[in-house]
Amino acid sequence: MKSEQAGSSTPPSILVIDDEPDITCVLGDLLKHEGYQTDVACTGAEAILKARQQHFSAVLLDIGLPDLDGLSVLSLLKEIDPKLPVIILSADKTEEKLASAFRKGAFAYLPKPYNITELKATLRQAVGAKALALKAERVESALSETQERLRQVTEHIREVFWLTDHNKNEMLYISPGYEEIWGRTCESLYVSPRSWLDSIHPEDRVKVLDAALQKQVNGLYDEEYRIVRPEGTIRWIWDRAFPIHDASGAVYRIAGIAEDITVRKLAEDEVLKLNEDLEQRVQRRTRDLEAVVRELKHEITERQRIEQVLRETEEGFRCLAEATFEAITVTENGKVLHANHRFAEMFGYGANHRFAEMFGYDLEKLIGMPSIDFHPAEYRDRVMQMNLSRDQSTYTAMCLRKDGSTFFAEIRGRPMPYRGRIVWVTEIHDLTRHAAQVS
């Protein structure tokens, strides 16, 4: 048996379905701060069990679960509660996954890492949509109950029965219910048989009079109209009439029954207003979702284009770096980010890097090292001064190998843009080795 929420004062309850404790902890704190009650399920099976036992205002679902496919969990949740809004949280932003999620009834699809502001706004919309759906359901239920009560009343309480001659000139009988509904005496109707027309709302009077004179004798009279009571209140009347024939088959009397249907009409008007409001909300939400899908598609396309440009740029840089015979490094904030691969031919380092050959380090050990460490102490101030100038420069300096030996080198450096920031690209030419080769 599901436990219903106690009432409007009870905070909305959110079910978070994710197998990562860090994420569920962060979401739990965020939702608690926003005034929601939170329950957590780490697997699809646990989530389904909780959904069967308790009503939730909305669900945050990570589709990457350890036991069940997230979209299968979505389908099961919608079977349990078709009105339950399920917000998908996933790093998978492919169009196929988005389309599949929305086909299965997802309320929204938010990419990981999610934007907190967007998450909170989407969750508020989801909770509001669920509350509106529940309200519409309650109104529809109330209308059904009202109609059932009306049926029971008509079976046990006398309605307004009336009987006239076929020309509507004489009131032969009127039941006491007339005084309660119309607010006028039965005696007044006996004295003036057509005085009931005076109580009909001016906008309905002509229609009702024409129907009474033309349809009652044919058994087709079935009208709904408004009456205005003496104190000014308006009531809705459902009035039906049936011809009564004499022995020769001629119509000589008209019998009828009138019911007060004010409650039903007011309920229908309320449901109509709620349906119109709900339809407008659905249309707005559909437009919003369509806009979100368009934005997501544009964002995915743009990111793919940027990633492709970056890949091509980096590949070009690697090809250029590998094609040179000199040692090349890329540094940022004085630390090595990249160095080109060049096998050490002269010193027998095998697959080691050309830069490693020159300085006696393995490639992996070079990444992250301060570039100033590759110079003896007496040269470091000069090298730092040249680097701080941030201008293209060529200078000579003594370089320091890992084993402590040194060599004289020509150094060329210049700043270059890289992934939205500026790095320092340096080319090092071993003058000592060059001199030996010349000799």
Protein architecture, described:
- The protein is α/β, with parallel strands linked by helices and 439 residues long.
- The protein has 3 domains: 13-152, Response regulator (Rossmann fold); 159-260, Beta-Lactamase (2-Layer Sandwich); 324-438, Beta-Lactamase.
- 46% of the residues lie in helices and 24% in strands.
- It contains 13 helices and 15 strands.
- The protein has helices at residues 21-33, 44-53, 70-80, 95-103, 116-156, 177-182, 186-191, 202-215, 262-323, 354-359, 363-366, 377-388, 431-438; strands at residues 13-17, 37-41, 58-62, 86-90, 108-111, 160-165, 171-174, 222-228, 234-245, 251-260, 327-332, 335-339, 393-400, 406-418, 421-430.
- Strands 2-1-3-4-5 form a 5-stranded parallel β-sheet, with helices on both faces. The chain has a 5-stranded antiparallel β-sheet with strand order 7-6-10-9-8, sandwiched between helices.
- A hairpin with a 2-residue loop joins strand 11 (327-332) and strand 12.
- Helix 5 runs antiparallel to helix 9 (262-323).
- The longest helix has 62 residues, at 262-323.
- Residues 1-7 and 342-353 have low confidence and may be disordered.
Give the integer mean of the pLDDT values: 82
Using the alpha-carbon principal axes, give the shape.
Answer: rod-shaped
**What is the CATH architecture annotation of the largest domain?**
3-Layer(aba) Sandwich
Strand order of the largest sheet: 2-1-3-4-5
Beta strand %: 15-25%
Instruction: Characterize the biggest β-sheet.
Output: 5 strands, parallel
Please state the CA-atom Rg, rounded to the nearest Å: 43 Å
Distance between the first and last residues' Cα:
94 Å
DSSP strand tally: 15
Task: Please provide the ordered H/E string of secondary-structure elements.
Answer: EHEHEHEHEHEEHHHEEEHEEHHHEEEH
At CATH level 3, the topology of the largest domain is Rossmann fold
Please bin the fraction of helical residues. Answer: 40-55%
Per CATH, the class of the largest domain reads Alpha Beta
As residue ranges, the low-confidence spans are 1-7, 342-353
> What is the domain tally?
3
Going by CATH, the homologous superfamily of the largest domain would be Response regulator
Q: Figure out the total of helices.
A: 13
Summing up helix and strand content along with how strands pair, one would put the structural category as alpha/beta
